[in-house]
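retry 2 of 3: previous attempt timed out while embedding adenosine-5'-diphosphate. Reduced batch size to 1 and resubmitted. Inputs unchanged:
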Amino acid sequence: MITKILIANRGEIAVRIIRACAEMSIRSVAVFAEADRQALHVKRADEAYCIGDDPLEGYLNPHRLVDVAVQSGCDALHPGYGFLSENPELAAICLQRGIRFIGPNAEVIRRMGDKTEARRAMLAAGVPCTPGTEGNLADVAEALSEAARIGYPVMLKATSGGGGRGIRRCNDPEELEQAFPRVMSEATKAFGSADLFLEKCIVNPRHIEVQILADTHGNTVHLFERDCSIQRRNQKLIEIAPSPQLTSEQRTQVGDLAVRAAQAVRYENAGTVEFLLTGDQVYFMEMNTRVQVEHTITEAITGIDIVREQIRVASGLPLSFKQSDVSFRGFALQFRINAEDPKNKFLPSFGRITRYYAPGGPGVRTDTAIYTGYKIPPFYDSMCLKLIVWALTWEEALDRSRRALDDMRLQGVKTTAPYYQEILRHPDFRSGRFDTSFVDMHPELIDYSVKRKPEELALAIAAAIAAHAGL
Ligand code: ADP
Ligand code: ADP
Ligand code: MG
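retry 2 succeeded.
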């Protein structure tokens, strides 16, 4: 069994992993950049080591991180999400140096991190994918001829993309021609790879993803689905488990497809298979080979501690349950409370938290690394808190969410919390019927201070749709 874990991350996910270690009597080791000296993960871990003056370099240096793991006597490393969590080199270095990597092996990370290779693997396994190019695009000319074959609108995507970046919808050849060099330079800067491919754009789909857990003894199970359709600029804002808009047949279908996808690549540890749904069509989109930001809502409805299972699997233990043991109860929502000003184009709002009271009461969980007096550094993600709410029924979960957001006091920075209150009031959201266009279709919820006239609203909606198309 693993006895000491290096946590190669920061923020709320580092704290989440430290909590799992504490419950399992495993020692935890934190790493931090100078900018994070006052961070909660540093205070909460059993040991903490500084990995440099640069705010990012240390968290992105696989050799350095594994050195610290070896020197501090760790036998495992947890990568969290973001940073190097989907970097095959980190997993490979861990293996070479005798440190267990808490995730799948380097080859699976590499394969699934390459979106075109992942698509090929899924098609071979009989998992339906969005129509698209077989591999990467050689140049604009090939992009144009492939798009003509696939049919507009198309999505131009970075093969190594993530975090909602490096994705552009193109409605016609002109837009594609314009977007091609831009997305390529964006991808090169953000992901260190200029590879691009095309997918058919599924218009107004629902984003449905399935949580997978697989051990080293050949057991692969799913923990049902999450609905992540409430997004802004391809980034998730509110996640829901289970989806309020799936039939039980669809639920079985996506669960089975996700297990088939994981088995096809001999997946081990926790992972997520993402799908797009439209009508009764299901398309594989990508696989994330790490713990996900929204794993919390699956924990809320199934009672399974996903990080604990990750650690058990990496220790070589079998999963502590079978598929038939997994059931879900009620509904859970997660709100990503970002330090951003929704009234000002969601501009990041970094600075000192002058007051923070966590919401409480039944069915409420907060995962965060902030505290009163903490100064949010400008170098990292703007997500500063995850509010997770559970209740027995969809309506109760909505009411409880409103109450929990109201309970919370977070002052000193602007946050997305007031925007979520507006979404919670909206009849389309409450009806449980929405797709990935919800945020763009409701600009009046963002400008919630102004009551607009119907004709103004129609203009704003048209502008938002145009902006989305040309993103
Ligand atoms: P999830 O897929 O877990 O819902 P996100 O897509 O928001 O979460 O990604 C989690 C974090 O990882 C975010 O901070 C995001 O910016 C970062 N991230 C995801 N993929 C990549 C990538 N390929 N390169 C760099 N950062 C990434
Ligand atoms: P990332 O790796 O950044 O998470 P994804 O491939 O998962 O990128 O796509 C992120 C989001 O972009 C999806 O949740 C969806 O809203 C939108 N999207 C991606 N591909 C398509 C597509 N082919 N058609 C329509 N929307 C898409
Ligand atoms: Mg994704």
